[in-house]
Amino acid sequence: MLNVNLKKDRYKILESYNSNVYRVQDELSTCIYILKVCQNYETKQYKHQFKTEIDVLSKLNSFLAPSLVTCFEDEMAQYFVETYIPGMNAKQFMKRYKGFIKRYRLLLDILIVLQALHEIGYLYIDLKLENIIYYQNRFYLIDFNACIENHSRVAIMASKSNCAPELMNLREKDVRCDIYALGSLVHELFGFWMMPIVFLCHQKQERRISHLSTFKTMIVLHMFIHILVVLSLCILSVFLILKSTSPKNVFDAYYYHHNIALFEKAYHESDQKDRLYTWVLNGWILDDVYQNEQASIFLMKEAISTSDATLIQYVYDRVSLKKGSKLETFVMMYLKPNANRVNRCMTLANEGNILLKDKLDIYNQCLQIAIHEEFKISLTPVRTWLESVDESQLLKYTKEFEDLGCNYLEYLLLLRNKEGEIMEVPVVFVDHLKSNRWNDIYAFWRSL
Where is the Protein kinase domain positioned along the sequence (predicted)? Predict the structure, then answer.
């Protein structure tokens, strides 16, 4: 418990959330507030973020976010008091509330706060359900301690699965960082229902949605479409209930009479538009189909052709495939990555008969995943390949080769920061890479 004179005992501590955050009561007004503390022994970075949060709260003008009440200091620490927003966090709320209307309400409310935040020159960065409070039918954004200035170039090494890749390096940060996090939030709230929007939010920085207004328009349109789809499905359900279950066509013979041999024929005869989505959504793929190896291979090929990682994962979790099959290896990188999958893909790329450009792309993708997810992987396949490959062939693919060098060095920085490991930079990168991006990262590496 904080053991200081809080402005001559004006603020009475009611609850301690952690060593630096408290719920307090103002003895003069009896109002409840949040008190945050920055002790004198805290790091320079922590003190900087503490002052940043004070600046944000003092300038932010949004009824869906806390506001600064006062700030003061004594010989031991600095303090500030902000308004207290009761209620439960959005992660807890979404476990209880299964409807989709509130999920759209959450996104629209958070967009209001982010718009106000961007207007005062800051990015939120740490966007997640735990930092959103549901209170009196509205959603409030709290905890602005991770904010950074718009267009800053600071590298953030924090472990946050919803952070944009550019936060891990020295590239310029802008509103697209928050849009990337919004994409992760949308995926958590809606799953594959909103994969097109998630895809646009998770593009590389230069191809990502760059305006909150564009994102909002897409959300509103999706909401109306979602409502229409639900109404249509309700009507369709009533229609199917009223239909006779006699096998009048191939689909009826397959579905109502469980004739698994007719599955592929029934599937091909159905409407081609978003066919696999429709079958999954309506539950038309019977359990016996997933247990059939031939049907499983067919379903996985259909899922892969959509290039939708969520749909591929959904089908992959249900089908029966032999361990180590070629199809399983091909599917591997579409699924949610882990360190073993990344290592396996890099090894397969090194051993397989793959075109040079494709091999560079695979290594770059694997390293970017490892950096973003902070996986510990083996760099041996890349080093071994670099020692054996003809350097003149590498230089034909300047951009891919430069990306590999920068990704490789950024991963070494991550290892050095997390594990304290110091590894050598391959000579081929040092000898041939001259771009500004490489020079900036390499200069930072040498300065450590």
Answer: 7-331
Q: What is the pLDDT of residue 247?
A: 45
CB 133 within 8 Å of CB 90: yes
Torsion angle, CA of 105/109/112/118, rounded to 10 degrees?
-110
Angle CA 391–394–400, to nearest 5? 150
Which residues pair with residue 88 across a beta bridge?
A: 134
Q: How far apart are CA 14 and CA 18, in angstroms?
A: 13
Average pLDDT over residues 6-16: 81
Write out pLDDT tens, residues 135-192.
Answer: 999 999 999 998 999 998 887 754 466 788 888 888 888 999 999 999 999 999 988 8
User: Which residues, including other chains, have CB under 8 Å from residue 18's CB and lie 6 or more apart?
Assistant: none
388 and 405 housed in the same domain: yes
Instruction: State whether 261 and 321 are in the same domain.
Output: yes
Q: What is the mean pLDDT of the chain?
A: 85
Q: Which two tokens stand for residue 446?
A: 């040498």
* Full residue range of the structural domain in which residue 398 is found: 339-447
Average pLDDT rounded to a whole number, residues 91-99: 88
Across-strand partners of 135? 138
**How remote is the C-alpha of 27 from its chain's centroid?**
42
- What CATH number is given to the structural domain containing 149? 1.10.510.10
- In terms of phi and psi (left: phi > 0; alpha: psi -120 to 50; beta: otherwise), the region of 359 is alpha
Distance CA 137, CA 175 (A): 27
CA separation for the pair 347, 253 (Å, rounded): 46
Judge residue 182's burial from the number of C-beta atoms within 10 Å of its C-beta, 0-12 exposed, 13-18 middle, 19 or more buried: buried
Work out the burial of residue 448: count CB atoms within 10 Å of its CB; fewer than 13 is exposed, 13-18 middle, 19 or more buried.
exposed
Could you give phi then psi for residue 83, rounded to 5 degrees?
-65, 145
Same domain, 330 and 343: no
Structure tokens at 287: 């359990």
CATH of the domain at 24: 3.30.200.20
Q: Which helix (DSSP H) or strand (DSSP E) does residue 47 occupy?
A: helix 44-59
Q: Dig out the tokens for 71 from the structure.
A: 């700030």
Q: How far is CA 400 from the centre of its chain?
A: 24
